[in-house]
User: Which sequence fits this backbone?
């Protein structure tokens, strides 16, 4: 996901992740019960998992990069709040279906699967007005586009001092990040990504990646993310 975020940008990562999720949700919804077709549901669950992972990775970063500093923490916190709210809504949908529908009715598992398409569809509808992160644009040296995005987001002219301060601050942070990774503030994106990949392979970092991976894996295997309604 890091490479997608840095090479393709935040907006494109959202588009790809949402598209993968929608395809997975469709597979889950139209999947049939007989064993010969159960693979479609498994495939759909895999794709929805990948889509959720991508969106969950890019959304806080994107929100933080477009938010004004004064409310950046609150806006980023809203993501986690809405994420957990969605989980609660999903639980009660499943709870209602389990207690009010015949478990032998295919709708008992198609409905929870299909509900996933609602938030994913709303996100897809909003993509046309989604702007690329100005931070990513500045990293790529596309300053003019970054100024236009900031002008749109802040509803200020491109030459406004407030926007100039934002851009100057972000450029300083980018230079610091590159200096820490490569030893040079003028390192290219390719050099920065290679340095980040090398750092990720260091013994201490490998352990952290492994712990995070195991936590997510155990969460899924424990049933915490499972759907309560099972295909009959």
Assistant:
């Amino acid at each position: 996901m890091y490479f997608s975020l840095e090479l393709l940008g935040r907006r494109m990562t959202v588009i790809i992740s949402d598209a993968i999720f929608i395809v997975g949700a469709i597979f889950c919804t139209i999947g049939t019960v007989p064993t010969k077709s159960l693979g479609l549901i498994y495939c759909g669950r895999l794709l929805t998992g990948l889509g959720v992972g991508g969106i969950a990775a890019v959304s806080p970063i994107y929100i933080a990069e477009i938010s004004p500093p004064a409310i950046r923490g609150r806006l980023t916190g809203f993501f986690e709040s809405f994420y957990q709210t969605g989980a609660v809504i999903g639980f009660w949908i499943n709870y209602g279906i389990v207690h009010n529908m015949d478990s032998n009715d295919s709708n008992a598992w198609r409905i929870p699967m299909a509900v996933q398409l609602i938030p994913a569809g709303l996100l897809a509808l909003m993509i046309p007005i989604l702007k690329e992160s100005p931070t990513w644009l500045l990293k790529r040296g596309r300053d003019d586009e970054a100024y236009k995005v900031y002008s749109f987001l802040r509803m200020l002219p491109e030459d406004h001092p407030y926007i100039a301060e934002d851009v100057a601050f972000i450029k300083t942070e980018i230079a610091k990040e590159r200096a820490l990774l490569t030893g040079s503030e003028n390192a290219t994106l390719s050099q920065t990504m290679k340095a980040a990949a090398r750092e990720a392979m260091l013994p201490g970092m490998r352990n952290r990646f492994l712990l995070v991976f195991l936590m997510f894996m155990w969460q899924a295997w424990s049933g915490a993310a499972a759907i309560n309604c099972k295909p009959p």
